[in-house]
Specification:
Blueprint: E1 3-5, E2 24-25, H1 31-40, H2 46-57, H3 73-78, E3 81-82, E4 87-93, E5 99-104, E6 110-117, E7 122-125, E8 129-130, E9 148-149, H4 152-166, E10 180-183, H5 193-204, E11 216-220, H6 224-234, E12 237-241, H7 247-253, H8 262-270, E13 281-287, H9 295-304, E14 310-316, H10 330-342
Parallel strand pairs: 2-3, 7-10, 10-11, 11-12, 12-13, 13-14
Antiparallel strand pairs: 1-4, 4-5, 5-6, 6-7, 8-9
């Protein structure tokens, strides 16, 4: 049975959780932003370096523990800033070791974060939105309407929260448990690009968490206008949520295809900066029985991605209540994989993780109460 921790009572709220919305979150400030904020308080730039290292290298949230800050300075900082993590509404642990946190944000909205341990790595799957705009027909998350984008500090906060529990401070130590980040949780990261980019730059800073861009993968359903910018500015790994090799079927499975079709998507992928045999694009392909799993589909996939340094991640469909789809038979998945591999592409079949706690690919959906339409935030550019 999965392990579930109950929602904590108010008295059990962690000490580092601050409901004071007048304070500025350090988790959402790049170093230059922090320097500017300190300058407004009349403090020199070098203080930013000290605070940055305590927060992002050592994981501290209490200014009184930052021992190289003068004692009179600590209450001044505490009256303007905080380094709070999101509150955990519920923690679940799968029989396979996967951990899922339902994180409660300052406004009461919730998102999900999943840690997936493996023998040679530990991957954290983080969310970029509360809900999702894309309505992919096979995805549980897509049944939850978009409420709002996550701010940079809320994205970074998911990572810090996980590092707290995993004991990964100081950052960069040997045998750390969190080695990789994938932007594959709730939401479409390229519909929240500004905040996602800011968060990743904070996490990639060598003076803090210092996670290499080669250890970060951004998954998109194909928001073509933002792809070139993301590749140029962040240089992280690219994953494409593909799932179909014909426009007609992809229009149904991944409706954003009606706006940016396969031809446009393939052109954008070919232009991804740094794409090479050493840094291949990952094509995510969920295997749906009788829908997209034929040998003809496999051959069409090989033809579609010809000339693009690629690997194909075959994902057995992870059922969720009311989905209407079935998982492809293991034998059919193997036939599909063999065709792709014979064409020269690695095509690992992803082992489902965390199914028993609805933490597997396509199963994330928070328990947030939907806001009325008048309260929902429309993400610029997603409509149409």
């Amino acid at each position: 049975m999965p392990v579930t921790d109950p929602i904590p009572a108010a008295s059990e709220t962690p000490a580092h959780f601050s409901p004071d919305k007048s304070l500025i979150s350090l988790l959402g400030l790049e170093k230059a932003d922090l320097q500017a904020a300190l300058a407004e308080l009349g403090l020199p730039k070098f203080r930013a370096g000290q605070i940055w290292r305590w927060v992002f290298r050592h994981g501290l949230s209490d200014f009184n523990e930052m021992t190289d800050l003068a004692k009179p300075l600590r209450p001044l900082l505490a009256s303007h800033f905080h380094a709070d993590r999101p509150l955990v509404s519920r923690r679940q642990q799968s029989v396979d070791g996967t951990i899922k946190w339902l994180v409660r944000l300052a406004d009461g909205q919730e998102a999900e974060t999943v840690y997936i341990p493996d023998r040679d790595r530990g991957t954290l799957c983080i969310s970029s939105q509360v809900g999702c705009t894309l309505n992919c027909s096979f995805c549980h998350t897509g049944t939850q309407r978009l409420v709002r984008n996550l701010a940079a500090e809320e994205i970074v906060g998911q990572i810090m929260l996980a590092m707290d529990e995993l004991g990964d401070w100081p950052a960069g130590k040997e045998n750390r448990r969190l080695t990789n980040i994938v932007l594959m949780g709730m939401g479409e990261p390229l519909y929240n690009y500004e905040q996602v980019a800011k968060a990743m730059k904070i996490i990639m800073s060598g003076e803090g968490v210092g996670l290499s861009r080669r250890r970060i993968t951004l998954s998109t359903s194909g928001i073509v206008p933002e792809m070139e910018r993301c590749g140029a500015e962040l240089g992280v790994n690219l994953a494409i949520s593909l799932h179909a090799v014909r426009d007609g079927l992809r229009d149904e499975l991944v409706p954003i295809n009606r706006k940016y079709n396969l031809a446009q998507l393939l052109e954008a992928v070919r232009g991804w900066p740094g794409l090479s045999n050493a840094r291949r694009v990952t094509w995510e392909y969920v295997m749906l029985k009788g829908v997209n799993d034929s040998e003809q589909d496999a051959r069409a996939l090989v033809k579609l991605i010809a000339g693009i340094p690629s690997k194909i991640n075959l994902i057995p469909f992870n059922p969720w209540p009311g989905s209407g789809y079935e998982t492809s038979a293991a034998e059919q998945i193997e036939k599909f994989a063999q065709i792709v591999m014979k064409a020269g592409y690695a095509s690992p079949v992803r082992t489902p993780r965390g199914r028993d706690i609805l933490a597997a690919c396509g199963q994330l959906k928070s328990d947030s109460v939907r806001l009325r339409k008048s309260q929902q935030v429309t993400v610029a550019g997603w409509q149409g």
